[in-house]
Amino acid sequence: AISILTKLEEAPDPRLRSKALFYKGLMHKWEGDVSKGKEVFGLLSEKADTNPDLSLAAQAELASLHYENKEYEQAVNDYQKFSQKAGKDSWKALSELERGDIYLFKIGNSEAAKQSLEAIKDLYPESSAEFKLAKDRLTDALNKNNRETGFKAMAEGRVESAADVFKKHLIDFPRDGQSRAALASIHLIRGDL
Description:
By secondary structure, the chain is an all-alpha fold. Helices cover 81% and strands 0% of the residues. The longest helix has 27 residues, at 129-155.
C-alpha cells in the first residue's frame, strides 16, 4: 500500500498528493513506525498547499503520535498549533481539553491545566452539556490534585507549605470539606485554636 501511495504523491493534482501523503502517514503510524509517521504528518501540517482540513487532521495525528510516544511537551505544543489553525470554537475547545489533560495527568502542571480550563470557559461561557461535563471533570481533577499536594506536604512534615496549599485551594473551591478539615488540623497542630 505504501508503494502505491508513494506513486500517488507524484500526481499532478495537489489535493491527491496531499491525501496520499496523509494516508502514507497513517500507514506508518499503524505499522508502528512512529518517526516516519511524525515526519509525514509534520510535513503535511506545514505545507502551504495542503487543504486546511487535511492540515488540521495532520496536526491532530502529529499530536497523537507525540502523546503515544510519551513526548508530552511536544504533544501540548502540537495541540496549541491545532487550536491556532482551527476555525471552529468546538475544535479549539477540544484542543484545550486535550492540553489540560496532558498538563494535569502527564506533566503535572496544574497551573497550565487551569489555564486550559479558563480558555474553554472563554470559548463556551454557556457550553453544551458535554463540554460542561468535561470541564467539571477537569475541575474535579484539579481539585483532587491540589488536595493531594497539600496532604503530601503534611505527610512530609511541611506544615506551613501544606497550610498555604490548602488556603489557596479553598479560594477556588470554598466548599471542599476535606481541605477545610486538613486546614483545621493544621491549626490544631500549631496550637492556633
